[in-house]
Amino acid sequence: MEARSRWQRFKVSVQPTLKELKFILNRIKQSPISVIGLAILVFYIAMALIAPVLAPPLPKADPYMIPQESFIFMPSPPSPNHIFGTTENQYDLWYGCVWGTRTAFRIGFEVVVGGLAIGLVIGCVAGYYGGILDELMMRFTDIIFAFPGLVLAMAFYMAIPDTVTIFRWGDINWTMNIMSLDKVLIALVLVSWPSYTRVIRGEILRVKTEDYIEAAKAVGCSDYRVLMKHVIPNSIYPIVIMASLDIGAIVLTAAAMSFLGIGAPKGYADWGQLIALSRNWIYGDINNPLGYWHVFLIPGIFIFTFVLGWNLLGDAFRDILDPTIRRR
Amino acid sequence: MSDILEIEDLVLRFYTYEGVVEALDEVNLTLKEGETLGLVGETGCGKSMTALSVLVLVPSPGRIEGGHIFVEQGKKRLDLLAQNEPFLRKVRGKDISMIFQEPRVYLNPVYTVLNQVAEVYMQHRLKEFCHMAIEEINNEIKSGKAGFLAEFEKSMYRELVENPTSPLLQIAARIPVLNRYKRRLMRMIKKEIVDLLKSMGIADPERVIDMYPHELSGGMAQRVVVGMALACNPKILIADEPTTNLDVTVQLQILNLIRTLKKKYGSSILYITHDMGVVAELCQRVAVMYAGSICEIAGVMEIFKNPLHPYTKGLLESIPQPGKEFKSIAGTVPSLINPPSGCRFHDRCPYALETCANTKPKMIEVKKDHFIRCHLFPGVQK
Amino acid sequence: MGLGSYIIRRLLLLIPTLIGVTLLVFAVSQMIDPALRALLYVTSDKQLSILDEIIKKYGLNDPFYVQYFRWLDQLLHGNLGYSRTGRGSVLECILLRLPATVEITLYSAPITILLGIYLGVQSAVHKDKVLDQATRALSIIGWSLPSFWLGILLLSFSFALTGNIGLAGGLFPPGRLDVSTQAMVNSPSFIQYTGLVTIDGLLNGKPLVTLDGLRHLVLPVITLTTIQIALIVRVMRSSMLEALGKGYIISARAKGLSKKTVINKHARRNALIPVVTLSGLLVAGMVTGVIITETVFAFPGIGRFAADAALQLDIPAVLGFALLTGIVFVVANLIVDVIYAYIDPRIRLG
Q: Does B55 touch chain C (CB under 8 A)?
């Protein structure tokens, strides 16, 4: 055999993955519903990426805090200066919605990745090694499942301290402030990891009994290697489906918490928070009941379509990646 | 012997996402009164679909698109495919019954045996049992043992006889106290079912009657299914591989049961199987089917001694026998989305002629009671 | 193996889960500063001034397990702590506001379940036709809607359309009752048999009270139902499709039964099985939905209480609410499991 360069070996190893991706994209193209979902998400990804261009932040300011032109209490309707108008206290809605896209993606991905990371580790250990470790883990997840998500998230939120000491030695004292939005993220990660653990453990239990696992072990593969190279790649599809469906739910829960006031702080570029600011204006003016429609309608449309996009995509994934009907 | 069932030029197509499946291609079959006709063929050749077509129960996306299914009803000869649904419902389970392959799959897991067998009685013999109930009530009244609700019960039963779908009955059925009137009826039906199950060879029917399908053994479940099919004394019984999934010993028991019951009830049986041994045991005549059409029909002895169609020959030769070399038919069963042109067997047939690829052969009577559909046997059309 | 022994087995399993629930809530409370935690043991506002003594008395610096049993003991005596927001003991605050929430749930849950089952069955039976497509589209839209946004939209539009008809706040206003009706309910001549205004109104012979209560319930119930129904429809549809493909369906039709009977008697009961287990999740969804919906509609129930408490960082209230919800959820799941065993005899062998 000729010697292959590292780059060539990498290309070869990545080929099956590329084929899978092409297959998935093809199947998505076939269903109009999933195309809509994908289109919505592409739109939002684009908006998130070029946010600084669409809505330039003020110099030297935190880009996630919405700029205020003045401090007039009443919202202003859409105008050439403010495309979407402004909310109470003159926060620019266009800015808030555009940068809110970044916040939404950040929330979705951080919580899912965090939950997955914890879920993978615990799920793998529980499923692969079984025994009493497995039992303990399952009882623990049962207890978390005993609570509705939002309720538990609220309880966790309260328990997370405002500052945390990272390093203490003698006179040196490094602390970190935890912002309210970060508290929400941590709380949501703590609430969502059990679902991933369950699914991963289930998949591992299924894969564990397959013949190729025994074969790998017979050849002397270490446990870690078996997990990494054989078990996880074969269990990944249900996880992908679950994650894409979950992002929608997580964004909704985070928005709800922001709406209730325990999420993003006032003036932060977060869709839920913008709707919270609109609560005084639901009934509009004396003579004009829908006079302030822009303050609650526009951010709501953003949340709704964002979540809809993920749900459509997740549904499409579920139909496509169902192992029983996958192959032509 | 008259023809009790005649399938003439039956065409069945399935409109699926992958294309149109030509499932049945001008199937011709006759079942004579009192006989057992075997229908053999490989999996997927259309045997089950033929059976379902007789009951006009082909699942969608299937559509029957041609042909007739003639049945003898008293002195009349009716085409089932031309009848409406309410008429067909009277036929199914009463004049023509069907039993299926895996009994525990074909019984509803959430209802007891009693519930499911009683359904047949309630559907087809309701009036008979109502009259019996009324008579029993009258006897009770005469002997002075009647309860105070006797007249009410009588009027309910009379209503059931005259007007089974009346709103009064529908409301009464839902009110817990009022629907006690049905108890008498259920008691009588239950007694009848116990006798039925006993005649099916079930040792303690009172216990079995309250069990759920998953609690029964395969053989027991199949006996229940056979009982359900024969409850109303059907003229025609269609059996779709009823013993394929059972243990060999149980298989033998069920076959014996079917044989005995046929003698007792006098039904004609269309027995579908892929097992030639069962055919030899049970049937008087045999029809061989391949890829959606019938190749050959003849008496059992005749077919074993003198198989004429190349496919039949191949089938019989491929039955493994000790000492003999293992033979099989070359090629594979074709997809029915784009079936082979002409005779569907031509690309696997060792004797194929040129015309076999172009034209479909017609069914002809080569000898007395020996029908074949093959270009090797030109002759007068049937 | 009968239904009875299955129930007993499930009841026994209930105990460790309940213990686990209390442990979790307690663990969460332990992460909080002792000064705030002390409120968990306070029973009236008089004690607020002697907080330091309470910290010492309840040994809030003692080891974990000691505190746990002390707290558990308090719990079993009904003391969940003192709520700053409600200005009363947590238990009192919750019990006071419970009837309002029960009323919303009482109307939403049956509609969600029954309508969801019906739409799911029809969707499956008429697969891919107009009804099916429309139902699935509406389901996924309902599932993607933020419930607070839906509530706001409904309020806004209902006010815009009906604000002028002379009723305060339009035809479907927020809140639970009009000021005048509330005064009537609070008056000594009105006996609160159940705490549910719609029923009490009838029992007291004052149908106007019932009507007023109902018109305040319309929008919150619509909000709650729309969000939840998607889940039931989707699961019912797919499980019905699965049931319709099974062998016993053909058997039943071969017996001469009508399509309607086969769908309703044979297919539906089998299809309901996965949906029953879903109803447990529905309870969780209701609780979550109720928190947001009550806040949007200013409905004086435990959901709004919990939301206000969370905003004020009122630890005992939030933890008490979480604990109660956990227990309710665990019990609901038990009931669901029992119903499941009743419908599907195969489970009882378990």
A: yes
Name the residue range of residue B119's domain: 113-194
Chain C: touching chains (3 or more CB pairs < 8 Å): A, B
B19 lies in the same domain as B55: yes
Residue B193's nearest CA partner among B237, B231, B166 is: B231
B54, closest residue in chain C (CA to CA): C254
Task: Choose the final residue of a domain: B323, B349, B365.
Answer: B323
Which phi and psi (to 5°) does residue A103 adopt? -60, -45
Q: Are residues B78 and B156 in the same domain?
A: no
Dihedral angle of Cα B247, B249, B255, B257, to the nearest 10 degrees: -110
**CB contact, 8 Å: C245 with chain A?**
no
- Whether residue B357 lies inside any domain: the answer is no
Which segment of A84-98, B324-338, C325-339 scores lowest on mean pLDDT? B324-338
- A142 vs chain C: nearest CA distance in angstroms? 8
CA distance C302 to chain A (A): 12
Nearest CB neighbour to B57, from listed C246, C254, C344: C254
CA nearest to C81, candidates C63, C64, C58: C58
Look at residue B367 and tell me if it is in a domain.
no
When scoring A136, A150, A290 by the number of chain C Cβ atoms within 10 A, the one with the most, hence best to mutate, is A150
User: Which residues in chain C are closer than 8 Å to B216, comparing Cβ atoms?
Assistant: none
Number of domains in chain B: 2
Residue B14: phi and psi, rounded to 5, are -110, 125
- Tell me the CATH number of domain A20-321, given options 1.10.3720.10, 3.40.50.12780, 2.40.10.120, 3.30.420.40: 1.10.3720.10
Q: How many CB atoms lie within 10 A of CB A34?
A: 20
CATH, residue B94: 3.40.50.300
- Cα B262 versus chain centre, distance: 14
- Domain finish residue from B146, B171, B194: B194
In a domain, B204, yes or no: no
Same structural domain, B105 and B117 = no
Q: Which residues of A touch C318 (CB under 8 A)?
A: 154-155, 158
> What are the tens digits of pLDDT across the range C216-253?
899 999 999 988 888 889 889 888 888 888 889 989 99
Radius of gyration of chain C (CA): 24
Chain B residue with the nearest C-alpha to that of C342: B110
Residue the block writes with tokens 């270009």? B375
Backbone torsions φ then ψ of B130, nearest 5 degrees: -65, -45
Select from A112, A49, A47, A40 the least CA-distant residue to A308: A40
Residues of B in contact with C257 (CB under 8 A): 89, 93, 119, 123
Q: C125 to chain B: nearest residue by CA?
A: B60
List, for chain A, all residue ranges whose pLDDT scores fall below the cut of 70: 1-4, 16, 27-28, 223, 226-228, 230-234, 321-328
Angle at C47 between CA C41 and CA C48, to 5 degrees: 90
Q: Are residues B250 and B148 in the same domain?
A: no
- Measure Cα distances from C34 to A3, A194, C64, C289 in Å: 66, 29, 13, 32
Please tell me whether residues B105 and B246 are part of one structural domain.
yes
Structure confidence at residue B382 as a pLDDT band (50, 70, 90): very low
Same domain assignment for residues B117 and B265: no
**Pair (B97, B244) in one structural domain:** yes
Q: What's the confidence (pLDDT) of residue B125?
A: 86
Buried b (16+ CB within 10 A) or exposed e, A173-211: eeeeeeebbebbbbbbbbbbbbbbbbbbbebbbebbeee
Average pLDDT (B91-108) is 89
Chains B and C: how many Cβ contacts under 8 Å? 68
Q: Cα B335 to the chain's mean position, in Å?
A: 26
Return the partners of chain A (3 or more C-beta pairs < 8 Å).
C
